[in-house]
Specification:
Helices cover 62% and strands 8% of the residues. It has helices at 10-16, 39-47, 91-102, 117-130, 141-146, 153-160, 175-186, 201-218, 224-232, 236-246, 261-264, 271-296, 306-315, 321-364, 369-407, 410-423, 430-439, 441-447, 454-463, 473-483, 490-521, 543-578, 586-600, 605-613, 621-630, 641-650, 655-666, 672-682, 685-712; strands at 27-33, 51-55, 62-70, 73-79, 107-113, 134-139, 149-151, 164-166, 297-299, 580-581, 584-585. Helix 8 packs across helix 9 and helix 27 packs antiparallel against helix 29 (685-712).
Length: 716
């Protein structure tokens, strides 16, 4: 089968990725680069709010596309997965390579880091072998200047044979020049003559032999020299991609026995020969990158990275890395706990003032009590509790989390925990998604997109709820303050509560590692994927950008999903508490039915029922417990911890009940917001159910073992 109009051009483009064009005249630009080069910042700065995300056709790899206008033209920018090379060692590399080859972009922008340009040039040189329509973006020029790294962009452009533009994407500097260079390359107003890597004589002769055959077969639809290298490299993936995208079986057309190609072609059963050939190819690329950098980059201070190294020697050391991480986590939680009290109280008073006005309206118009109960005491009051309890902690935690991310500390967290997750057959980046789960598990599930391996991404999603989110903090804090910190003096209570919550979190991390190990040995068997972690330089945070990203991208997004499920949940809770069968409400009947099972877990029927009814939002678990004990028919909160202590103790609570509730609060089914997010991210009800089941089984087992051990030893 030959190449046809149906197997190339726009049809191949659509197959590679669902490009959403406004008109046929739109210009498609591929955005490539190593991780941690600021590629996403370049993408966001150019496209602004004109973005949409999805998955690559037939892949689990996320894609982002955006658009921008320049010189009257509409440009579609396709953000390719960040990769260190295009040797097709992973799904991400295959996706990036296939889009450049078969997506027919009008130009490819390769984003590099000015502070480590030599390493980034390896990818640049590989892409230059594939296409000549390339613009190199040297980002983070401000960091390079701060470290006294001088880059001669004109010299670099001459050496590479393509336009080179220096940028600082975070401040927008150089982006206009970048758009101008892309415009000229895409519309062929600029002539490019990319440098070609020179290999050993044996490889070059073999490439020429295969190039002659390929060029006539491919009809100039692909770079025949690069394709010859891939064939010499015994790259079966590129042959599969050609067959899939172009409907052309190149392997059947090539004469591998022709000289001199046959003299270097690795035998199919010789892994060593193939590896040696690839090593020689990679070595030649690395040597050329070093040569180019030696001519275009000057280091005024050879020890420019010394301060970062000294800091990393402490923050990533075996002795201090984990303790400092736990201490920082404790500080973040202490600030969140202390800082959320006052704004939470203000928001609650305002929202309940509105409730009082709504009640006045119902009385004024003589509306029935049941309607007032269902809409105001049920739906609105639940909504008010969720907003007043969730919003302040998220508004504090997410900016603090984003601050650590902007400083460059979070990759160090992944580095410190990578070995532990690797032993659990999971991915080191799961540490980052787990940290995001502290703020909100739904946000942590979304963050799992950064994990490349589909298997390890599923492990991270399923186990994300084993660390507590801010919705569970009110319950944990209240119980800790009453039964653990309550006996201490007043000035030590916040410290003891923070220490206890930090201990609960460490327990959650251990549970995450254990569950990840079990999943990787059972329903998600597999070998841990390779994880190349590049520690970015420490950077001065941009507080304006931090606030925007944390408030709008995370806080408002998560709060919106919680609100969507809180109001209907309030109606269900009110119905359970106010519809009577005989002399007891539905809530009482359910609690009585659950009592024997709950007792085995160290709980009671009302507590277990509160967790079940709290499925829409974990914030409402404790108010439901209070409502159940006081038989009020609507949720309420007591005015002081002393009043709450008296209520709980009068209903049989002791230290066993308190710790069992904390353990079950740590490990039970995800809230509805998180479950909806899991369904959206996995596109599977099966994995959503697994995410429901895994933490719930863990919570039941842990609580059962703890409660029965305590009772067996006669400690209560």
């Amino acid at each position: 089968m030959g190449l046809t109009n149906q197997s190339t051009g726009l049809s191949a483009l659509r197959e590679a990725s669902d490009i959403q064009k406004v008109s046929p005249d739109d210009i498609v630009i591929a955005l490539a680069g190593n991780p941690n080069t600021g590629k996403s910042t370049v993408f966001n700065s150019l496209t602004g709010l004109n973005q949409h995300t999805g998955n690559w056709t037939g892949k689990t790899v996320a894609t982002a596309q955006g658009s921008y206008k320049y010189e009257g033209k509409n440009f579609i920018l396709v953000d390719l997965p960040g990769t260190y090379s295009l040797l097709s060692n992973s799904v991400e590399e295959e996706v990036a390579r296939d889009f450049i080859c078969f997506g027919n972009p009008h130009a490819t922008v390769v984003v590099t880091d000015a502070t480590c340009l030599e390493r980034n040039l390896n990818l640049v040189l590989q892409i230059l072998e594939m296409t000549d329509k390339v613009v190199v973006c040297v980002n983070l020029m401000d960091e390079a200047n701060r470290k006294k790294i001088r880059i001669d962009l004109d010299q670099l452009s001459q050496l590479l044979g393509v336009p080179v533009v220096g940028t600082n994407a975070r401040s927008g500097k150089g982006l206009k020049e970048l758009m101008d260079a892309v415009y000229k390359v895409a519309l062929e107003q600029a002539v490019t003559k990319p440098i070609k890597v020179k290999y050993s004589n044996g490889i070059e002769k073999s490439v020429q032999s295969l190039d002659f055959q390929i060029s006539s077969l491919m009809q100039n639809k692909m770079n025949s020299r690069w394709l010859a290298l891939k064939l010499l490299d015994n790259d079966a993936a590129i042959l599969n991609s050609i067959n899939r995208h172009l409907g052309f079986d190149l392997a059947e057309k090539i004469n591998y026995s022709s000289e001199p190609a046959a003299s270097i072609w690795p035998s199919s059963d010789s892994v060593a020969d193939s590896a040696a050939l690839r090593d020689e190819i990679v070595t030649s690329i690395v040597a050329l990158a070093e040569d180019i950098c030696s001519k275009a980059v000057k280091f005024e201070n050879e020890n420019y990275n010394e301060l970062d190294k000294r800091i990393d020697n402490v923050l990533t050391s075996k002795a201090f890395g984990i303790p400092i991480m736990i201490a920082l986590l404790g500080v973040v939680f202490w600030i969140t706990i202390e800082g959320a009290n006052i704004p939470s109280d203000i928001i609650a008073k305002f929202l309940f003032w509105i409730e009082a006005r709504l009640t006045d309206i119902f009385i004024l118009y003589g509306l029935p009590d049941w309607l007032h109960g269902a809409l105001v005491l049920g739906m609105y009051r639940t909504l008010a509790w969720v907003v007043s309890v969730m919003l302040p902690p998220m508004a504090i935690f997410f900016p603090l989390f984003t601050l650590l991310e902007d400083l460059g500390y979070l990759p160090r967290v992944a580095f410190n925990l990578d070995n532990y997750f690797k032993k659990a057959c999971a991915h080191g980046k799961q540490a980052l998604t787990m940290c995001m789960g502290f703020g909100c598990n739904a946000a942590g599930v979304i963050g799992c997109r950064i994990i490349d391996s589909p298997r390890e991404r599923l492990i991270a999603i399923i186990t994300n709820f084993l660390v507590p989110c801010n919705g569970r903090f009110p319950t944990l804090i209240a119980i800790t303050s009453i039964f653990i910190a309550g006996a201490a003096s007043s000035h030590l209570q916040s410290f003891i509560a923070t220490l206890t919550i930090t201990g609960v979190i460490v327990l959650g991390v251990l549970a995450t590692l254990i569950a990840s190990k079990i999943l990787s040995k059972t329903i998600l068997k597999g070998v841990p994927s390779s994880f190349t972690l590049e520690l970015p330089p420490y950077r001065k945070p941009q507080f304006g950008r931090i606030l925007v990203r944390s408030i709008f991208d995370r806080t408002i997004f998560v709060l919106g999903r919680a609100v969507a499920v809180a109001a209907p949940a309030g109606l269900v809770i009110w119905i359970f508490a106010n519809i009577y069968i005989g002399n007891a409400s539905i809530l009482d009947h359910c609690a009585s039915f659950l009592q024997p099972f709950a007792y085995l877990l160290g709980l009671d029927g009302y507590i277990l029922m509160a967790f079940i009814l709290g499925l829409p939002a974990n914030e409402i678990v404790m108010p439901i417990v209070i409502m159940s004990y006081m038989s009020t028919g609507s949720m309420l909160e007591l005015e002081s911890l002393d009043a709450l202590r008296d209520l709980l103790i009068s209903h049989g609570w002791n230290w066993l009940t308190a710790i069992s509730v904390m353990l079950f609060c740590l490990m039970h089914f995800p809230c509805a917001t998180t479950l909806l997010t899991i369904r959206k991210e996995t596109q599977s009800w099966k994995w959503t159910f697994a995410s429901f089941l895994v933490p719930t089984i863990a919570g039941i087992l842990v609580c059962f073992i703890f409660a029965q051990t305590v009772r067996l030893l006669g400690l209560v």
